[in-house]
Each structure stands twice: as C-alpha cells, then as structure tokens.
C-alpha cells in the first residue's frame, strides 16, 4: 500500500510540474473566431481580385494593397481576440496571464513567425508572390509546433496540418489561395471547436 501511495504522489508531482511548465489558458473559442475572420477576409480578397482586377493580382496595384490590408486586419483581429479570450479564461481560473511560461510561449511562437513574415515580404518585394500562401502556412505551422512545447501539446497537430498544406501550396501554387482558406479558415474552426469542447467546456 505504501509503495502505491508513493507512486501516486510521484505521479501527482510530475503532473503538477508538467502543468506549471505549460501555459494552458489558450481559448478554443479564439481559434474558432480566427477561422471565421480568415474566411471573411478570404471572401473579401476573392471578390476584390475577381471583380475588380479581372483575376489578375498586380504587385504594385491598388487591389493588391487592399488585399494586404485585409490580411493585416484578419491577423490583427485574431490576435486581439486571442488575447482577450485567453486573458478572460486565465482570470477565471486564477492563472497568471504573463509569467515565465507565457513569455517562453510567445517568444518561441514569434521566432518562426517573424522570420517567415520577413522572408515573405522580401520575395513579395521581388515580385514573387506565387509562393506566399504556401509559405504563410509553413511558417505558421512551424510557429505552432515550436510553441506547443510551452502550451497545450495538441496545438502541434494543427501545426503539422498547416505545414503539410503549405508544402502542397508551394508545390501547386495555383491552389495556394484555397489551401490558405482551408488552413487558416476551416482548420482553425475545426481545431478551435475540438479544443473548446475538450478543454473549455469541461473546466
């Protein structure tokens, strides 16, 4: 009996150490809304390109700048929504929103994301924007996998999916837009819904 109690205590200590080293207040609902924002942004960009530029997107064109602005707004809304919902969830459970763990999470998430963003801007400035959709998915997927070490481990699976979709998009640039919609839109909604019912509803 004593041996079993010791093993149980050790198991509980390991579990507590595991939780303390990970930021687990991420909100599944923020993933759902990020996917919705992405779908709305994709719809706006699709209408802009097909109706106002005859299906041809010019790098120095007004429509291209509008598409970039739409992409920026999608990212901004997703980040702000994620911060708000994650902060609300953390406060609800009495967890700290900005501690050593969350700092490591953000740092490891931003490294691939910032490097990828700079690289995409470089190739866009060179007039090579056929690969941009696939590269966005790849670097975003790498950011998720890298950050999963300090958060809910399940986000790495979303990262793997994004990387795979990004590689397909780089291989078949003609499908980059629809793969972007699938990765940033639909997969975010599917993943966010799963995480919401797995972690948020039960808590």
Structure, explained:
There is one protein chain. The protein contains seven helices and no strands. The chain has one domain. It is mainly alpha-helical and 203 residues long.
The parts where pLDDT drops under 50 for at least 5 residues are: 12-21
Order of helices and strands: HHHHHHH
**Helix proportion of residues, in percent?**
over 70%
How would you name the oligomeric state of the polypeptide chains in this document?
A: single chain
Computed CA radius of gyration, to the nearest angstrom: 20 Å
| Count of structural domains | 1
The whole-number mean of residue pLDDT values reads 81
Keywords: Membrane, Transmembrane, Transmembrane helix
Blueprint of the fold:
Blueprint: H1 2-20, H2 28-52, H3 62-92, H4 100-125, H5 132-147, H6 155-171, H7 176-200
Helix pairs in contact: 2-3, 2-7, 4-5, 5-6, 5-7, 6-7
In short:
The chain crosses the membrane at residues 23-49, 61-85, 105-124, 130-148, 177-197. Keywords: Membrane, Transmembrane, Transmembrane helix. With 203 residues, this protein is mainly alpha-helical.
Structural features:
7 helices, globular, 203 residues, mainly alpha
